[in-house]
Amino acid sequence: MKPTELVGASPGPTFTITFDGRQLDALPGQSVAAVLWSVGILSWRTTRGGGRPRGAFCGIGQCYDCLATVNGAPNRRACLVTARPGDTVMTQEGNGHAGFED
Ligand code: FES
Fold it and tell me: A GO molecular-function term, please (predicted)?
């Protein structure tokens, strides 16, 4: 049984976002993290020290493990950002400002 059937939800039509160049289907109201989880993507950031993979941990905006670059803006909490049609999400490396320093 699909999760939407379990809760009796009838979401609107899907739309597309892009993650690292990959087209992903999203449902209205899903967070960016939820869209990534729904296709099995669990990591979309690397740590500043050591480049270790990170994704969502708390899912409620408290831990900042889920930072991603969304539509060119780094350090967006993917668990709180609602996916919108045409969004471009990128894996964030380090502090998210690579290439912006002098
Ligand atoms: S998962 Fe903890 S802030 Fe997003």
Answer: oxidoreductase activity
Q: Please, what CATH class does the domain formed by 27-90 belong to?
A: alpha beta
CA of 33 to the centre of ligand 1 (A): 9
Contacts of 39 (CB under 8 A, 6+ apart): 24
66 by Cβ neighbours in 10 Å (0-12 / 13-18 / 19+) ranks as buried
What does the pLDDT look like over 1-30, one tens digit per residue?
A: 877 788 887 888 999 999 999 999 999 999
Residues with CB under 6 A from ligand 1: 56-59, 61-66, 77, 79
Tokens 């919108």 label which residue?
A: 84
For atom 3 of ligand 1, the residue with the nearest CA is 61
What is the pTM for the complete model shown?
A: 0.87
- Reduced to 3 states (helix: H, G, I; strand: E, B; else coil), residue 32 is helix
Domain residues of the chain, as ranges?
A: 27-90
Instruction: Kindly give the number of the ligand 1 atom that is closest to the alpha carbon of 61.
Output: 3
